[in-house]
Design a protein that fits this description.
32% of the residues lie in helices and 19% in strands. The protein is an alpha/beta fold and 231 residues long. The chain has one domain: P-loop containing nucleotide triphosphate hydrolases (Rossmann fold). An 8-stranded parallel beta sheet has the order 3-2-4-1-5-6-7-8, sandwiched between helices. The two termini are 32 Å apart. 42% of the residues are buried.
């Protein structure tokens, strides 16, 4: 898949359980493998304690990907403070982290953590705010419901979405048909929000069935913890 021209900062946000953390991790890895210079992933998710980028710190380090995460991640602290390094990542020219991928917390509650950095991100002008949608999630099965969640996220953080990612899946039960059946849904959500679908995700093992049938297909390595999330 040819990725959209990567911005300095790419932010992934969406409904809780949409799979945005897995998408963000795969996107950062893909940027690094494509040789687009240094890549850093920043975890701003203060909502979901079950599936965090910190779980993959060793793998990311081996791949040469920087990681910025609260020191209280994976702890019993309800609202961990954001690390000061995130401010440097948000301000253009403040650091040499290269491309920055930000994993934003689920729903509007999680997006509140982003608010303090929005002015600097917007001032830099080199960012993509990506909404991750999953038609298989109970509360976002209708395009109208998914669009409402994305609008609530925009309202909470003060930053508008610039694109959408279709990450519809049923975990290990996902088939090529699951992905194909979701394409119209994703386009409907994108139209309601006023953006384009940037790419559609699928498990890497079913990607061969979808090649040539789905535009801008992004195969994902589904990380083990994704199947162990508690709802």
């Amino acid at each position: 898949m040819t990725l959209p021209e990567p911005r300095r900062i790419t932010l992934f946000a969406g409904h809780y359980g949409s799979g945005k953390t897995n998408v963000a991790l795969n996107y950062a890895r893909r940027l690094r493998r494509l040789g687009s210079g240094p890549v850093t992933i920043a975890d701003l998710d203060i909502v979901n304690p079950y599936f965090r980028t910190k779980d993959f710190a060793d793998e990311l380090l081996r791949e040469g990907i920087g990681l910025v995460v609260s020191e209280f991640a994976n702890s019993n602290v309800d609202f961990p403070a954001m690390p000061k390094e995130i401010y440097s990542l948000a301000v253009s020219g403040e650091c040499d982290a290269g491309r920055v991928v930000m994993d934003i917390g689920g729903d509007d509650r999680g997006a509140l953590a982003l608010g303090r950095y929005v002015d600097d991100i917007r001032a830099g002008g080199d960012y993509e705010m990506v909404g991750v949608v999953n038609a298989s999630r109970p509360l976002t099965r209708r395009p109208e419901d998914a669009a409402e969640v994305l609008r609530e996220i925009e309202e909470a953080c003060g930053l508008r979405f610039t694109g959408l990612v279709n990450n519809t899946n049923l975990g290990q039960q996902t088939t090529a048909g699951t992905v194909l059946d979701s394409l119209e849904y994703a386009e409907s959500v994108a139209a309601l929000v006023g953006v384009d679908v940037l790419f559609t995700c699928c498990r890497s093992d079913i990607a061969p069935e979808l090649e040539g049938r789905v535009e801008r297909l992004m195969p994902l390595e589904i990380l083990k913890q994704y199947y162990q999330m508690e709802e």
